[in-house]
Write a structure and sequence with these properties.
single chain, alpha/beta, Rossmann fold, Hypothetical protein af1432, 2 domains, five-stranded parallel beta sheet, two-stranded antiparallel sheet, about 10% strand, disordered N terminus, binds fe (ii) ion
């Protein structure tokens, strides 16, 4: 039996199905001028489908009248087999009959060639159908790869929200809608910042996606903080406060030992989202641009969302009060450039926040 042939990028496989060995030989000779063509022959209609399935050719040249089977029925059989979905089926016949030609096309033939045409025309037609078949195979392979990567991205995102859900069991303020809003705001801030700094579109695309996921996980380190502190309703004393502040370093440690492109940005955001531009933040009292960009962005987004939301200890702040707060804190708590970007994009930011408003969760 014929084995599937190894192919290079340019090579293609032709299966000639004809009861007359001399026609198969003629096809072989016609295509000998094209070194990319690998010709296989099959002289029995009963074997043709099985051989085609095994060989997975780019082009099948199918005779119409064979003693042990009907060529048109074979065209239908190839067309309905999923393994041959991208194979070009070409009828090769001595009959010049419009009705038969129409029937062949109706059954899914890609072409009808009266045997045997001049060399130059024959080779050109076979090459054309081989290219069409390879292009179709490439298209299907790309679609499969995209579907697979989309599926994997969906699994990853589901797992990430499960992690957020675990953190919320410990700290009820860390709701899914809060982290989605922080992620959405961070993405807008980064996008505006990156365009202002004339970064390449491809880099902006990939970085903003990493930031979005890292922002979702900004407070995941809170899982390492004791319940007595996390769930305390009154004000924390200084010891409790410094224990609470450990969530930044615990969060960083969750993403240590960089195993994927997400780990470094997630570690950076977890560690640096409470640093302040003037060096009075925690845990490392970093100052200005020594604070990584993603940390500076999530710092703005996290505080913005906290101020606009209802919490157990406060009502949502009105927009003017938030604007004044950020204007006052630019260059103190927050990166002045990012604050400026926030204040000039508030409508866009609010529309993202409204997408993720959940009355029940929002009010926590
Ligand atoms: Fe935090
Ligand atoms: Fe937060």
């Amino acid at each position: 039996m014929t084995e599937p042939t190894k192919q290079t990028a340019e090579s293609y496989v032709v299966l000639a199905v004809d009861d007359q060995p001399m026609i198969i030989e003629a096809v072989r000779r016609l295509l000998v001028s094209d070194t990319n063509a690998q010709v296989h022959g099959c002289s029995k209609a009963v074997d043709a489908l099985a051989q085609a399935i095994k060989l997975r050719p780019d082009v099948i040249l199918q005779d119409l009248i064979m003693p042990d089977g009907d060529g048109l029925n074979l065209v239908s059989a190839y067309r309905s087999h999923p393994v041959l979905a991208e194979t070009s089926v070409v009828v090769l016949s001595s009959k010049d009959d419009a009705q038969i030609k129409a029937d062949a096309f109706a059954r899914g033939a890609a072409d009808y060639i009266e045997k045997l045409p001049p060399l130059i025309e024959f080779v050109a037609r076979v090459q054309h159908h081989a290219r069409a078949s390879r292009a179709q195979k490439q298209l299907v392979a790309t679609a499969v790869a995209i579907a697979r990567s989309e599926e994997q991205a969906e699994w990853a995102e589901t797992l990430i929200f499960r992690m957020v859900e675990m953190a919320r069991l410990r700290d009820p303020t860390e709701t899914a809608v809060h982290v989605k809003r922080v992620a959405g705001i961070s993405k807008i801030l980064y996008n505006e910042w990156a365009h202002k700094h004339i970064l390449a579109e491809a880099e902006i695309e990939s970085q903003q996606e990493l930031l979005r996921i890292a922002a979702i996980l900004h407070d995941v380190g809170k899982v390492g903080i004791a319940d007595a502190i996390l769930k305390k309703t009154g004000k924390l004393d200084s010891v409790e406060l410094s224990e609470m502040e450990r969530h930044a370093e615990i969060g960083e440690s969750v993403f240590s030992g960089s195993r994927s492109v997400l780990d470094d940005p997630a570690a950076e955001v977890a560690l640096c989202h409470h640093e302040k531009w003037d060096g009075t933040g925690y845990p490392n009292k970093l100052r200005g641009e020594n604070i990584p960009l993603f940390g500076r962005i999530v710092a703005v987004a996290d505080v913005y969302d906290a101020l606009r939301s209802r919490r157990s200890y406060k009502e949502p702040w009105p927009r003017e009060r938030i604007e004044k707060f950020f204007a006052d804190e630019a260059g103190k708590h927050f990166d002045p450039e990012l604050t400026e970007i926030l204040l000039s994009n508030l409508d866009k930011i609010e529309s993202v926040c409204l997408e993720f408003s959940d009355v029940e969760n929002d009010s926590k």
